[in-house]
Amino acid sequence: MQMQFDKPLYTVPETLNLIRIGLTKFYEEVNAGRIPVVKAGHRTFVPAKSISTWIESLPVISGKEGQQ
Q1: What pLDDT is recorded for position 53?
Q2: What's the pTM?
Q3: Sequential DSSP letters for the chain
Q4: Could you tell me which residues come within 8 angstroms of residue 26 by beta carbon, excluding any fewer than 6 positions away?
Q5: Which of 14, 50, 49, 19 is nearest to 32 (CA)?
Q6: Strands of 43-47's sheet, edge to edge?
Q7: Contact status, residue 34 vs residue 28, Cβ threshold 8 Å
Q8: Considering 30, 46, 47, 68, which has the largest number of Cβ atoms within 10 A of its Cβ?
Q9: Average pLDDT along the chain, 68 residues, taken 10 residues at a time
């Protein structure tokens, strides 16, 4: 399932809002290479493709495992 994005790059706060994770988890994923980012000066941006690829890499859980 390919997601549609409104723009090619997102700021870190926009990305956190889109994928609903915290800043610490976000930087864990970035440092592990699972969410590639780009820099423009001191600003960090997340390409829409990075977000989409990360979401698609998440495991699919069914049954009781997926319930909370």
Answers
A1: 96
A2: 0.82
A3: -PPP-SSSEEEHHHHHHHHT--HHHHHHHHHTTSS--EEETTEEEEEHHHHHHHHHHSPP--GGGG--
A4: 12, 15, 16, 19, 35
A5: 50
A6: 9-11, 43-47, 38-40
A7: no
A8: 46
A9: 83 97 98 98 97 95 70
